[in-house]
What we know:
- 62% of the residues lie in helices and 10% in strands.
- It has 124 residues and is mainly alpha-helical.
- The protein has a three-stranded antiparallel beta sheet with strand order 1-2-3, with no helix packed on it.
- A hairpin with a 2-residue loop joins strand 1 and strand 2.
- Helix 1 (3-17) runs antiparallel to helix 2 and helix 2 (21-33) packs parallel to helix 4.
- It is globular and about 40 Å long.
- The relative contact order is 0.15.
Amino acid sequence: xxxxxxGIFDKAKHAVIDLDVQAVERIAREALETGINPVDxxxxxxxxxxxQLGDHFEAGETHISRILxxxxxxxxxxxxxxxxxxxxxxxxxxxxxxIVESEDFSTHQGELYVxxxxxxxxxx
Length: 124
């Protein structure tokens, strides 16, 4: 992972934590423009922010309403990324709230990658 990716993932994480819808949308577009894998942005940016909020909730430092709000913020970012995920050369399948992604067979021998759970009960 290079410093550009790390910076974008960090910005995505903090935008979710800060409940900043406009930043999440902007960061999702920026990631696509720089060629970052959208599933990686979801995992290492948006989901990382949700996990941190979950940790704060478990510690009694935030309320469930903030987590639900963050879910809606993250949802807007996923909406921006969904067309790129579905049109990629990788095989992507949605199973409930999981994305299963398989790399191009010629370069990665069909390895499967399963993302963390996504709170997204529908596709497309």
